[in-house]
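Researcher: Here's the sequence for the chain we discussed earlier.
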Amino acid sequence: MSEQHLEFTVEDSGERLDKLLLAQLEGHALNSGDGFSRVQVQTFIKEGRVTVNGTPAKPGIKLRGGETVRLTLPPREQAAEVQPEQIDLTVIYEDDDLAVIDKPAGLVVHPAVGNESGTLVNAILSRWPKISQMSDTEGRRGIVHRLDKDTSGLMVIALNDAAQASLMRQFQARTVEKIYLALLERTPKTLTGRIEAPIARDPRQRKRMAVLREGKPAITEFAVLDDNFKEGQALVEFNLLTGRTHQIRVHAAFIGTPVVGDTIYGFRKQRIRLKRNFLHAARLSFDHPRTGERMTLESPLPPVLAHLMEKLR
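Model: Thanks. This is the structure I predict for it:
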C-alpha cells in the first residue's frame, strides 16, 4: 500500500507538536477506528516523517500558530488478518448469540494503521474464536457499534452473522437505548433538555466534529442528576437518539457545558486533571436477536470517576 499523508495548519500558539499530532491523528482516524499513542507519534518525528513548513521537525519544537505540519505515515506491509490477543475483558452477559462487555477507557475498538494490535477486536477474537468465521468486513467482525477510546462502558458484541445483522438493524432503526453518564464543567441552563443540532466533521480541524448546518441530524436528550459540586460541575444523564461521532461531547460543548477531561471539545486549560473523558456508557437496552426479549444491562461508574466525584463534592 502507498504512504498516507496528513497535513494541517496550526491554529493556536504554544501547542506541543507531539500532542497536537496525536489529536489530529485521532480525528483523522475516526471513521476507521485507528488509534495512536504519543510514543508512536514521537517515533514518527524522530524518523523524519514530520515536517513543519517543509522542514523536518525537531521533537522539542514550539509551535507559534500558522505553521503547516505534514506527517507521512508508513505504509502497511499488507492487509494482514487481525490476530487474536489475550486481553482481559469484563464480560457482563454472554450467550450463544451475543456478549455484552464493559469496555475500559484507553482501549481502542478497531485495529488500523499505527494500531494493529491491543484493540478490542484482537481481544474478542481470542475470547470468542468463532467470531473469526463471521462473514463481515475485515477487522470489524462482531462489532456493531463503538465507543471512543477514552470513553468507558457497555458494548454489545455479536457472536454470529444473524445476531450481527439483527443488532445492526436495531441500531439503524434507533430502537437501541444508549444511556451515558457525564460530568460536565458547568450545570446546563435547564435541568432537562433536548439538543437537536446537526453534526459534521469540522472543515478547519479534522480532529474535531462540529455543529454545522450541513451536518447529519443529531439528537441528544439530557437530565441533570446532581449539581452539588463545589466547583460548579454537574453529573448529567444523556440519552442518545442518534449515533454521530463524538455526539455527546460535541453537543455538551455546543450548549457551553463541556465534558470534564475532554481535551478536544473542553476547556483549553483543564480545571481537573483527568487522563480520560468523564463519559461512561452506563445502560444499554436492545431486543435479543434470537428471542426478541428486551434486554437491559447496566454498568456502574469506574472507581476512578466515582472517586473524583466524591473529591469534588
